[in-house]
Amino acid sequence: MNLPDTQSIIRRQRLYEQLFIILGIVALLVALLTLLALFTRLAIDGMPRLTPDFFTSFPSRFAERAGILSAWVGSFLVMFVTACAAIPLGVSAGIYLEEYAPKNRWTAIIEINVMNLAGIPSIVYGLLALGLFVQIFGFGQSILSAGLTLALLILPIIIVSTREALRGIPGGIREAAYALGATRWQVVSDHLLPYSSGGVLTGVIIGLSRAIGETAPIITIGALTFIAFLPTSPFMAEFPFISFKWVLDPFTVMPIQMFNWTSRPEEAFQYNAAAAGVVLLAMTLLMNGIAIWLRYRIRKTIKWQAAPLQQRRQRNRSCPFHNPQQPHRNSKRKHASSTFITALFMP
Amino acid sequence: MKNISLPVYNEKITALIGPSGCGKSTFLRCFNRMHDLYPDNRYGGEIRLFPDDVNLLSPDVDPIEVRMRVSMVFQKPNPFPKSIFENAAYGLRVRGMNKKAELEEKVETALINAALWNEVKDRLQEPAFNLSGGQQQRLCIARALAIEPELVLFDEPTSALDPIATASIEELMLELKEKVSILIVTHNMQQAARVSDYTAFLYLGEVIEYDETKKIFTNPEKKQTEDYITGRFG
Amino acid sequence: MEREHTIKQYDIELREIREQLLEMGGKVEMMISDAMKSLVERDTALAEATIAYDHQINRMEVEIDEKCLQVLARRQPAARDLRFITLALKIVTDLERIGDQCRNIAKHTLHLNKEPVLKPYIDLPRMAVAAATMVREALDAFVRGDAELALKVCGDDTFVDQLNSQIQRELLTYMMADPTTITRAIRVNAVAKCLERVADHATNVAEMVIFMVKGKDIRHTA
């Protein structure tokens, strides 16, 4: 082995490595800075309008008095219906496909179609909803129709993430549970659902944060753009204290309100739209933040691997090679932050 | 598999040895109907469990019932990501037992029998994954013992462990055989020689020889057995 | 045809032990005939050489023991290999004892050569030849795994025992007839005893060969 040769090879490889790192950082910066620029623009335009009145006023012909009350309440209620519809359906479908369905041709066809559903343009969902929910089922142009439509839209996301989460559970756990005499349902409810809850929750929140920004299907089913009233309150004074009349009320959502405002000629409405955009962005970031935090918490309770070696040495007091000099506090902090970061990026 | 017929004696350890892919694990998993979990499997023949002479492979017998009388310890320790107590108690919970006092008593017995009680008795609520590999495997053994089975199946239980943990598990098996019957599959011949009372040598789905361990390892009848044991195989 | 071990080094180690055992056996056979020759031809130098030669036999015992221990420690032999190694260890002991007996014969020869011949030696050489043959055949049987040959060796022991009794009776008549022959007769008797013991050790080897081959222990039975 000729030493100068190998050294020049190593040097060249290191050079390529450095170039690649620089390229990566540049690409990352380009993406981040573009996003940052857009957001800053939005914030500069919209921030002055973000007063408490903005959140509690209805839309109005006068830009200064217009607010997003009906819009954000509408968004919230539609998300609620979407969640109620999509989560049970999606999670159950995911569990069925992963655990119960026999592996034959029909199941394969179903699986392929579930994947395809994710790629269908959202406006097609709107048309489907128009025909099915609004007219045939007679739900009308209501929160229920919108919620169900968006539920259909995000169903594939939830199904796929449920299945991925279930697949992430090592097969040894299943075998161990079955070998103890558990029925399939016991295995699912005692083990698989709890252990996969992190992944499932992630999928749900990713789906919801996508749904919150969907405009096309909502327009198609006819969400009205100028709503100066709220849907019927769910809380009533007398028995049974909870009313569901609001599901059938007309409504509007944040993206539509923004769309409405941007199509007005007055410049003042553009600022309103920017402000609403900031709010929408904040809502989305909030939902993603909750997802990350929940994943982090769940990751702490369900550990697939043993704690890092430092911590194990501390616990295993009978180990004769125990090093008492290890500072306990430091290792704990390091563990926490590394868990947090992995929670950010991995389901 | 072809024409396997051998006895598994009560309160004794029977070992299955043979080269890879000869059907040892497949045969072992018939005893607790694990093949039912995967499609396209079919059982032929009978496995009769005494004293009530029931055929474990009969389609009339519920696999869940079989698994409550025959439990299994796997190759790679696979405790649930729950607490140590919950791991040991799961088999009992599955049968509907949920009175705290009863569970605690049975879990303690199982952990004592698995030679783990002294090491974990004051940290039962800690996650099972904090234990070392050997301790985790003993926890899996405790889990399998908690349901008071009649036969315990060990599928290469120490192949993922270091020699010290292996020795402690082997010692545990020798203590356990007074309470339950044990059927162990191992590709470590010396382990079979150390631990078992009876040994069966399997090759390509057939039993080539079955006899007392001391005979198999000092003077086997069949040349194939001897070739395998002395390292002249392959 | 015996299959080879998957680990070739193991085969080499077993073969080395086998070859050294044969070599030791050959040397021991030579010692028997040399000891007898030194007695019959009254060759003192040969007797002294034979006594010194015992050191080589002892050294070989140590070497073979060490090799066997290595195999036991590192190869964990089982079944036939285990029987081979454990019996090799015992056979080495028997061969070493045979060497000791030959040295004793040579020592007696030294004393006998200082005195006049008692009588022509006829039966003693016959005993020596028989005993040497037994040793050779026992080792052949060990190496070849020939149980039949080993059984024959066990039977040959009777012949040697008979010769021993005959020599004893003859010497007794000499001693009763003439008391001055007693010291020489006792020594000659001792030589016969040594040869009888050599034959016994060869028989031991043969019995162990049968155990190794058949897995049946016929020692200490009829």
Q: Mind sketching the topology for me?
A:
The complex is a heterotrimer of chains A (347), B (234) and C (222).
Chain A: H1 3-46, H2 52-56, H3 69-100, H4 105-117, H5 122-136, H6 143-167, H7 171-179, H8 184-211, H9 216-220, H10 254-262, H11 267-301, H12 309-315, H13 328-345
Chain B: E1 13-17, H1 24-30, E2 48-49, E3 54-55, H2 63-69, E4 70-73, H3 84-94, H4 100-113, H5 117-120, H6 133-146, E5 151-155, H7 163-176, E6 181-185, H8 189-195, E7 198-203, E8 206-212, H9 213-218, H10 223-230
Parallel strand pairs in B: 1-6, 1-7, 4-5, 5-6
Antiparallel strand pairs in B: 2-3, 7-8
Chain C: H1 8-40, H2 44-75, H3 79-113, H4 123-144, H5 147-177, H6 182-214
Helix pairs in contact in C: 1-2, 1-3, 1-4, 2-3, 3-6, 4-5, 4-6, 5-6
Largest interface: A-B, 28 and 30 residues
Low-confidence stretches of chain C: none
> How many beta strands in the DSSP annotation of chain B?
8
Largest sheet of chain C: none
Distance between the termini of chain C: 33 Å
Enumerate the strands of the largest sheet of chain B in spatial order, edge to edge or round the barrel.
4-5-6-1-7-8
Structural category of chain C:
mainly alpha
How many distinct beta strands of chain C?
0
Which shape of chain C, going by the Cα principal axes?
elongated
- Beta fraction of chain C: under 5%
